[in-house]
């Protein structure tokens, strides 16, 4: 779970929840919700801020020991994902692009 990993990395850095919140620019209550597993789906932008502040990357934050994530996200995928996050692409934008590509493929198959 991402909240457990964030808390583990935060404690390893010696940060209090207040300190990580201030350094990352994430509200203390939201960070607490993530760490406690109440907020199970934080945005990629929030995760990117936390990863940067914790001197790690998204793979580490998402727990690189999770085989499913490691198998899916090779280096090129990680680079693309991190680039999209830096450019401000939201999960909604990403979903929209996927739906558009599915639609385009479907219409191309009909030709």
Automatic annotation (TrEMBL):
CDD domains: HTH_XRE. SMART domains: HTH_XRE. The keyword DNA-binding applies. Pfam families: HTH_3 (PF01381), SinI (PF08671). It comes from the Bacteria. Keywords: DNA-binding. Residues 64-102 form the Sin domain. Residues 6-61 form the HTH cro/C1-type domain. GO terms for cellular component: cytosol. InterPro entries: Cro/C1-type_HTH, Lambda_DNA-bd_dom_sf, SinR/SinI_dimer_dom, SinR/SinI_dimer_dom_sf, TransReg_Diox_bact_type. The keyword DNA-binding applies. One of its GO terms (molecular function) is DNA binding. This is Transcriptional regulator. It comes from Niallia nealsonii.
């Amino acid at each position: 779970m991402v909240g457990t990993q964030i808390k583990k990395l935060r404690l390893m850095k010696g940060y209090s929840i207040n300190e990580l919140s201030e350094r990352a620019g994430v509200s203390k209550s939201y960070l607490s919700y993530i760490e406690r597993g109440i907020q199970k789906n934080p945005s990629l932008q929030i995760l990117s801020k936390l990863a940067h502040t914790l001197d790690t990357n998204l793979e580490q934050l998402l727990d690189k020991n999770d085989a499913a994530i490691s198998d899916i996200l090779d280096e090129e995928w990680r680079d693309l994902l991190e680039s999209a996050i830096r450019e401000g692409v939201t999960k909604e934008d990403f979903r929209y692009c996927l739906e558009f590509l599915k639609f385009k493929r479907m219409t191309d198959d009909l030709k």
